[in-house]
Amino acid sequence: MYLLSLLSFFVLIAIVVFSGVSLEINYTILKPWIRWTGGAIFFLGYAMRLWAWGITRKYDIRDIAYGPLPQKGIYRIMKHPKLWGAFMMYTGLAIGVSSVVGIFLCLLIILPITLYRIKVYEGTLTELVSH
To answer: Using CA atoms in the order 82, 42, 46, 13, what is the torsion angle rounded to 10 degrees?
Structure first.
């Protein structure tokens, strides 16, 4: 998981670096209202992560084996809101800074990492609950 986090960090750096590449092309492709939409997506993802953290900070991963999974707040609506919030933050940042390269990196690297992490967490939870 450490390597996946490191790869995610490099994607973040690439989003920022490539945000200044070909501004004329980016302006014609991404109008200002799309940039504001990217900012809204970023802050929505951040809010999801904060909300999920507020609920799970009382839990320890070992407690899941002995008690119910969180079923309140955002966890009633969706599973893995922290991971999806992080994906939304990366994607919103890429859209917000008009980084076309960053948007493609989010779809080609961050999305598969997110899906892989969800698969690993689901396997871990299934193993813990089955014992």
So the answer is: 80
- Write out pLDDT tens, residues 55-100: 877 766 555 545 556 777 888 888 888 889 999 998 988 888 777 7
Please report the DSSP string for 56-100 in residue order: HTT--GGGGGTSPPP-SGGGGT-S-HHHHHHHHHHHHHHHHTT-H
* Inter-axis angle of helices 81-96 and 32-56, nearest 10: 160
CA–CA separation, 105 and 44 (whole Å): 20
Q: What is the band of 19 on the pLDDT scale with cuts at 50, 70, 90?
A: low
